[in-house]
Design a protein that fits this description.
134 residues; 65% helix; mainly alpha; 0% strand
Amino acid sequence: MSRSRQRLGQLLEETFDRYRIGPRGRLQHSRRLGNLLVRLYDEDPERAIRKHVVPFVERERELLQRIYDSHSQVPLALCLDEYEGLALLERLSTDPERVYAEWHLDPEELENLANLAGVSVRRPWGLSPSVFQA
C-alpha cells in the first residue's frame, strides 16, 4: 500500500501543478489520507487520477479554485492543506457513502469537507444536490 500511496501523492501533486489549483505554499502530503484514498479508489493510482480526478478537476476547476482560495484566507477543512484533499473532494462528490463507511478520522473534518462538496452529513448519509454536479 505504501508504494501506491506514494505514487498517488506524486500524481496529485502533479495535478495541482498542471491545473494550478490554489496556492501551494501550505500543501503537504498526508499518509492518513493517502492510505484512505488507496482503499477508496481500489485501482492503480495512474488509472484513478486519469479516470476520476482529472475529469473532476477539469469539470469543477473554477469551483475548486474558489474553495482553495477561500481556504487560504480562512481554513475550511484541514485536509485542504494536503494534496490528497483534492482526491477526497472527488470521492465525496461521486461516492460519498463509501467515503463515510471508510472514514475513521476526525468526523468534524469530514463534515466540513462534505459541506463544501454539497454532500449532506446527516445520518443516514442522505445526499443533497452537490455543488460539484450543479
